[in-house]
Amino acid sequence: MSGTVEASNLKEYHGNCHCGAFIFSFKAAELKQAEVCNCSICVKGGMMWTEPATDDYFVVEKGKDSLKDYTFGQRIMTHKVRTIRDIDLDALGIKTYDGASLLQPPYQPPKVQSHFSTIEEDLKVYDGSCHCGAVTLSVKSKPLTDIKVETCDCSICSRNGDIWIYPSKDSVAIHGEDALTSYSFAKKTCSHRFCGTCGVMVYNEILDPNADIKPINVRTLNGVDLETLKIKKVSGKEWDPQYDV
Question: Which helix (H) or strand (E) covers residue 160, if one does?
């Protein structure tokens, strides 16, 4: 790929993690499509990928030592498109990549301890986890095909590719809370809770004590075909204060 693009035809892109601890730039051909992989970590992390023209065109501007590594499987492996600024993700073409077939042995979701002994007749129990298994969860819910499911284009949700459902607090059981890291910003009305080892976003803690919901990232739930869900897009990027690095 890198040898086929003249330097004069490259475009410079800038990006960062949400908190701004890591900032980068890179040059590549105009970004018109992204690659989506079906492997276990890319699905749970909502990842979309692209590549700089060559490694020489990727520059870390801040925070070289601020990132954490996470490997699994064969430890084989590109740039996360969701971290790039001023990109309309919905306008990108999508190229699919069958990364799941490369994992040998195939990824097995961590075993989940049974959290609910009884459930109502019209409900199901969805078990799930982060990728590394440090955090597991169970959710009592009507079938996900029958309830409200949302994505949000705010600065943090669009970076993570989060897909949300909104069960009541007593319909969610989580093991491994100590392995979660909290992150909040702007008005700090909620705390985004993600695994400190593998980085997968698990749930959103609403800090209003009167709120009886516990938003769960559907990507953490086992055996859910995302293509079957009726996902509504919410425009959170319009909310004030506006995000800035």
Answer: helix 155-160
d(CA 49, CA 79): 5
For residues 182 and 68, the answer to whether their CB atoms sit within 8 Å is no
Residue 1 pLDDT more than 80?
no
Mean pLDDT of the chain: 89
pTM of the predicted model, to two decimals?
0.89
Asked if 44 and 136 touch (Cβ cutoff 8 Å), the reply is no
Alpha carbon separation from 185 to 51, 55, 152 (Å, rounded): 29, 32, 16
Are residues 149 and 139 in contact, defined by beta-carbon separation less than 8 angstroms?
no
Instruction: Count Cα neighbours of 57 within 13 Å in the Cβ-side half-sphere.
Output: 22
- 23-28 and 11-16: which strand pairing? antiparallel
Q: Please report, for residues 164, 165, 201, the alpha-carbon distance to residue 126 in angstroms, rounded to integers and kept in the order given.
A: 14, 12, 17
Q: With a cut of 50, say whether residue 2 has pLDDT above it.
A: no
Q: How confident is the model at residue 22 (pLDDT cuts 50, 70, 90)?
A: very high
Strands 180-183 and 190-195, how do they pair? antiparallel
Q: How far apart are CA 129 and CA 110, in angstroms?
A: 7
At 31-53, the pLDDT tens digits run 999 999 999 999 999 999 988 87
Number of other residues whose CB lies within 10 A of the CB of residue 114: 9
CB atoms within 10 A of CB 20: 12
Are 11 and 24 spatial neighbours (Cβ–Cβ below 8 Å)? no
